[in-house]
Automatic annotation (TrEMBL):
Top-rank lineage group of the source organism: Bacteria
Extent of the signal sequence: none
Record has Lyase as a keyword: yes
Pfam families reported in the protein's UniProt record: Pyridoxal_deC
Source organism of this protein record: Isoptericola haloaureus
Protein name: Pyridoxal-dependent decarboxylase
Key words of the record: Decarboxylase, Lyase, Pyridoxal phosphate
Cofactor(s) required, per the database record: pyridoxal 5'-phosphate
Length: 521
C-alpha cells in the first residue's frame, strides 16, 4: 500500500469559500437555487412514493469512499437523490405533522448565515449577530409580557423544554441561603423532585426528566377536562398529593398547543395555582407561540405573562426554516443558574462581555435568529400572524365541513389548526375503524399522493391533519379527505373479498368475455 499522502491542494483550493472562490460560490449557489426552484414549481404530490427498499438501494449505491467527483456533479447527484425523494411541505396534499412552508425572506437569510457561518456562542465570534439575537429575545419576551425577561435561541422545542426544566431544577435545588445544594443534601432532594404535566404534554417533558437525573416516577400526571386541557382543580389536587407524599413540585408544565388536539391549557387559572404553591410554571408554546403575533387570537395566551419560562418554536407557527426555537424566562437570574464558565471561552472575569454561551446549552450555535429578523422586517409581525390566523380559520372550516359527514367522524375540537377524525360510517365497528387508521395512512403515504398522521385519543386510533400552510384551501383539504375515503373503501372491499369462503371466479366476472366454449379469455 502506498504511503504517499494524497494531494488535496486542488480540491481544497476549489472547495473552500473565500475571496478567491467568491465567483464559484455565486455560480454554484445560483445553479442549486435554480434547480430547487424548478422542482418546487413542478411538484404535484407531497413525495415520490418510492419504497424504503428502493431508497435504501439508492443511498447505499453511492460510494462515499471513492475519489471526489467535483462540486457540480456532486450537487447534481445529491439533488437527484435527496430533492427527488424529499417530502414537500408546501404541497396541498401534505397535512401530517407540524411542518410548515417557509417564508422566502427567511430562506434568503438562511443562505446568508450558512455562507458566513457565524457562531453566536461568544461575542468575539459574532459581534452584531449577538446583538441582533439579543434584540429578538427582548422582542419575544415583550410579546409574552415579561417586563425584563431573558432567553436564548435553541435547536427546537425539545431543547427549549429541557433548558427550562434544567433551570427549574436548579431553582428547586437551591438552599434557603441562596446557595446551590451539594452532596447528600442535593441527591436527597433531587430524588424527590416532581414535574406535573398532563398526558397531552410533549414527550420531551418525560425525556427531560430522564436526562436531568430525576426519579423514574418524577413526571406526575394531571387530569384534564373533556377537551384534553389541564384541569386546574386536578392540578390543585396533584400539587397537594405531591406534597403529602414527600415530593417536591419542581415545575408545572402547561401546553399552549398540544401536538395532537392543538388545544391550549387554561393558562390564567393554572398560573393562579402555581403562584399559590410557589411552583415554577413552564408554558410549552412550541406550537401555539405564533399566537403572540396573531391579530385575532392573541387572547388565547392570556396568562402566559405570569409563567416562569416559555418555549416558542419559530419553525412552526412563525413559518421559519428548521431550526429556530427559543426558551424565554421572566427572570434573567433563572438562566444564570445554568451558566458554566471556561477560561478559553467565557471566563468569569469577562462576565461583562455578551457571551451567549452563558445562557445556552450549546457552545457552537448557528445564527438562526437572522431568519426571524429578516422575516419580521419583510412582512412584519402582523403578516406572520395573519398566516397563522389563515390556517386556524381553515381548520375551523374543515371542522364545520365534517360536522355531519356520514363517513368521517370528528373526534375532538381544536384551538389551533388540527383536525382529528376517524373513518367510521354506519356498519363499521370500532375495531374495524381502529384497524383502518394505520392502513389508510400507509396507503396514502406509499402512494405519495397525500400525507396524513395517525395518533391515539382517549384510547382510540385516529387520523390527523395538521394544517400549517396558509395557501391551502378548503377544496384542497377536501381532496385529501376524498383520498382518505377512497383508501378506506378499497381496504374494506379487499377485506370483504378475502373473507369470502367462495370468492368470485373469473368465469363469472362481468368484465370478462367468454369464448364459444364458455371459458374466460
Amino acid at each position: 500500500m502506498s504511503t504517499t499522502p494524497p494531494d488535496t491542494r486542488s480540491t481544497r483550493v476549489d472547495t473552500l469559500l473565500r475571496g478567491a472562490t467568491a465567483g464559484a460560490y455565486a455560480r454554484t449557489v445560483r445553479r442549486v437555487v435554480d434547480d430547487v426552484a424548478s422542482r418546487f414549481a413542478a411538484v404535484t404530490q407531497p413525495w415520490s412514493g418510492a419504497s424504503r427498499r428502493e431508497l435504501t438501494e439508492l443511498v447505499d449505491g453511492v460510494d462515499l469512499d471513492g475519489p471526489g467527483i467535483g462540486t457540480d456533479d456532486a450537487l447534481h447527484e445529491t439533488a437527484d437523490l435527496y430533492a427527488s425523494h424529499t417530502v414537500w411541505f408546501h404541497d396541498p396534499g401534505y397535512a401530517a405533522h407540524l411542518n410548515c412552508p417557509v417564508a422566502i425572506p427567511a430562506v434568503g437569510a438562511e443562505a446568508m448565515l450558512a455562507a458566513i457561518n457565524t457562531s453566536v456562542d461568544t461575542y468575539d465570534q459574532s459581534t452584531v449577530a449577538t446583538l441582533m439575537e439579543r434584540r429578538l429575545v427582548g422582542w419575544t419576551t415583550a410579546r409574552i409580557g415579561f417586563a425584563a425577561g431573558d432567553g436564548v435561541f435553541t435547536s427546537g422545542g425539545t431543547q427549549s423544554n429541557l433548558h427550562a426544566l434544567l433551570a427549574a431544577r436548579e431553582r428547586a435545588l437551591t438552599g434557603p441561603d441562596g446557595a446551590r445544594l451539594t452532596g447528600a443534601a442535593r441527591a436527597e432532594r433531587q430524588g424527590r423532585l416532581r414535574i406535573l404535566a398532563t398526558a397531552a404534554s410533549h414527550f420531551s417533558v418525560a425525556k427531560s426528566a430522564m436526562i436531568l437525573g430525576l426519579a423514574d416516577d418524577a413526571v406526575v400526571p394531571v387530569g384534564t377536562d373533556a377537551d384534553g386541557r389541564m384541569d386546574p382543580a386536578a392540578l390543585t389536587a396533584a400539587l397537594a398529593a405531591t406534597a403529602r407524599t414527600g415530593g417536591v413540585a419542581m415545575a408545572v408544565v402547561a401546553t399552549a398547543g398540544t401536538t395532537d388536539r392543538g388545544t391550549i391549557d387554561p393558562l390564567a387559572r393554572i398560573t393562579e395555582r402555581c403562584d399559590e404553591a410557589d411552583v415554577w410554571l413552564h408554558v410549552d408554546a412550541a406550537y401555539g407561540g405564533g399566537l403572540l403575533v396573531s391579530p385575532t387570537r392573541r387572547h388565547l395566551l392570556a396568562g402566559i405573562e405570569r409563567a416562569r419560562s416559555v418555549t416558542v418554536d419559530f419553525h412552526k407557527t412563525f413559518f421559519q426554516p428548521v431550526s429556530a426555537s427559543a426558551v424565554l424566562v421572566r427572570d434573567p437570574a433563572d438562566l444564570a443558574r445554568t451558566a458554566w464558565h471556561a477560561d478559553y471561552l467565557n471566563p468569569v472575569e469577562d462576565s461583562a462581555e455578551i457571551n451567549q454561551v452563558d445562557r445556552s446549552l450549546q457552545t457552537t450555535r448557528r445564527f438562526d435568529a437572522l431568519k426571524l429578523w429578516t422575516t419580521l422586517r419583510a412582512i412584519g409581525p402582523d403578516g406572520i400572524g395573519a398566516m397563522l390566523d389563515a390556517v386556524c380559520d381553515l381548520a375551523a372550516a374543515v371542522h364545520a365541513d365534517l360536522s355531519d359527514d356520514p363517513e368521517l367522524q370528528l373526534v375532538c375540537g381544536t384551538d389551533l389548526s388540527t383536525v382529528i377524525f376517524r373513518y367510521q360510517p354506519d356498519g363499521v365497528t370500532d375495531a374495524e375503524a381502529d384497524a383502518l387508521v394505520p392502513a389508510v395512512r400507509r396507503v396514502l403515504f406509499d402512494s405519495g399522493r397525500a400525507g396524513v398522521a395517525k395518533t391515539v385519543v382517549d384510547g382510540r386510533p385516529c387520523l390527523k391533519l395538521t394544517l400549517l400552510n396558509p395557501e391551502v384551501t378548503l377544496d384542497d383539504v377536501r381532496r385529501v379527505l376524498t383520498l382518505v375515503r377512497d383508501a378506506a373503501h378499497g381496504i374494506l372491499a379487499g377485506r370483504e373479498l378475502a373473507d369470502l369462503t367462495a370468492p368470485p371466479c373469473r368465469d363469472v366476472h362481468p368484465h370478462l368475455q367468454r369464448t364459444s366454449e364458455g371459458e374466460p379469455r
